[in-house]
Amino acid sequence: MQRRAVTAVLAASVLLLTAGCSSDDQGSPGAAPSPSPSPTAAGSSASPVEETPPAKGTVKVVRTVAEGLNTPWGLAPLPEGGLLVASRDEGTITLVDEESGRKTELGEVPGVSAAGEGGLLGIALSPDYASDRMVYAYFTSASDNRVVRMLYDAEQPVGEQLGAPDTVLRGIPKGMIHNGGRIAFGPDGLLYVGTGESGQQGLSQDKESLGGKILRLTPEGEPAPGNPFPDSPVYSYGHRNVQGLAWDAKQRLFAAEFGQNTWDELNAIVPGGNYGWPEAEGRSDDAKYRDPLAQWGTDEASPSGVAYAEGSMWMAGLRGQRLWRVPLKGTVASADSQAFLEGDHGRLRTVVAAGGGKLWVTTSNTDGRGAPKEGDDRILELEVS
């Protein structure tokens, strides 16, 4: 398989940021793919037939799908049924039967070096999964963060169902904090990767670095055609720590991002956009930086996963221990954000659309900063509107 190695400058040591940081480390103890970018510019006019969701929504916890999970991070529903769940600290991928909650460990991803916020993070299915059975994973190794892909062969013995990893992208800066980690295939069939600046703030504005970016790649790891910077995987920059990626019904990309002392963000992503970090946190008076479409005080969010359903973006809060609803009209919020599940289930990490007005949400109470209760961590099924 074709591989691409991208080298980034890694610091010999990483200095922790100020104690007020809302990041996950501190502040909390088929259609053919289109070759061109799918998201439209933030603030662009929406289609005249685009409906505005109600200002107020609802959330109902339908059931607990599974419990007893260790540091769940990535979650990927299989088309044949079942949920793949990545354990950050154990470096394993587990198949969860979404009907019975039964857990089957598929195997351990070799090379995972779990420490601090690092470990086995996001997972995603190949856009050709039905034929190639490839599972993509983002993880922290001994030297960097990287993206690999592995064959999932259900015919192999339990515990040995993951093939040897093939490296798609390497050289993403790593640290004890701000490792990013969310990966997703977009409506264009291309791979989007959310990275963090690993505690080295200057990397976010350095377009030669892979840190503090959203990257856009072919499934083989090459810079995607139509990217804003020639021969570069960088799609947008000026990010602090991106852990949420989702597209709305019009194929526009949105990303959740940790702030430091003041503001956490939900951003509408445009190709080549500069989102300001470390020069700007939250909304800014400087026109060269893209403003978030919504922002929250750092004790209310610490956002990780995000998903689109029923006309709104739904964003998980770690330190905030709540689920945020952001109703959308185009790429702007059509009403004030609304909080649900506040404190009910502890820290919330990942949100995935389950179809039919439902979401799957994982808790994150065993990650070293939560207060785990009996049964943690869990996958919850929610009904939303």
Polypeptide structure, described:
Helix content is 1%, strand content 37%. It has one helix and 26 strands. Strand 21 (323-329) and strand 22 (332-333) form a beta hairpin. Residues 1-23 and 25-47 have low confidence and may be disordered.
The amount of helix comes to under 10%
How many β-strands, per DSSP? 26
Indicate the mean pLDDT.
90
Distance between the termini: 43 Å
- Counting copies of identical and different chains, the oligomeric state is single chain
Structural class, from helix and strand content? mainly beta
Supply the CATH class of the domain at 69-304.
Mainly Beta
Keywords:
385 residues, mainly beta, Neuraminidase, five-stranded mixed beta sheet, five-stranded antiparallel beta sheet, 1 helix, 26 strands, signal, Quinoprot_gluc/sorb_DH_b-prop, PQQ-dependent sugar dehydrogenase, 6-blade_b-propeller_TolB-like, Glc/Sorbosone_DH
